[in-house]
Design goal:
This protein is mainly β and about 130 residues long. It is built from no helices and 11 strands. Strands 2, 4, 5, 6, 9, 10 and 11 form a 7-stranded mixed β-sheet that branches. Strands 1-3-8-7 form a 4-stranded antiparallel β-sheet, with no helix packed on it.
Length: about 130
């Protein structure tokens, strides 16, 4: 059973940066697409970014394009989300999720229901 644990969230002022980590255990991530999602209070969970199993393909929501960068280190079984130029509207609980598909290229971020495993989330608050 794959388990995912997010970390790196916290309180940061507008314009600041955070790096989230998604560490996996129980199985290697080599065959999994990884997505980052976020959910703000009263809102639906939305896709933020996606990275293919070998890291060769990525995708971003328009709202974070140019500010967030997804990457992965399969040797460490970890995926990262570097978040720069943070805005108040980025405030949310951030989740990572794994989709078992070695061939998917993240032409889209994929829907919530398409992912097989989820982490418990980490809170990101952008406020002065």
């Amino acid at each position: 059973q794959l388990q995912l644990v997010e970390s790196g969230g916290g309180l940061v002022p507008p314009g600041g940066s955070l790096r989230l980590s998604c560490a996996a255990s129980g199985h290697t991530l080599n065959s999994y697409v990884i997505g980052w999602f976020r959910q703000a209070p009263g809102k639906e969970r939305e896709g933020v970014s996606c990275i293919s199993s070998n890291g060769g393909s990525t995708n971003y929501a328009d709202s974070v394009k140019g500010r967030f960068t997804i990457s992965r280190d399969n040797a460490k079984n970890t995926v990262y989300l570097q978040m720069d130029s943070l805005k108040a509207e980025d405030t949310a609980v951030y989740y990572c999720a794994a989709l078992l598909d070695s061939f998917a290229k993240c032409a889209r971020i994929y829907e919530v229901f398409e992912y097989d495993y989820w982490g418990q989330g980490t809170q990101v608050t952008v406020s002065s």
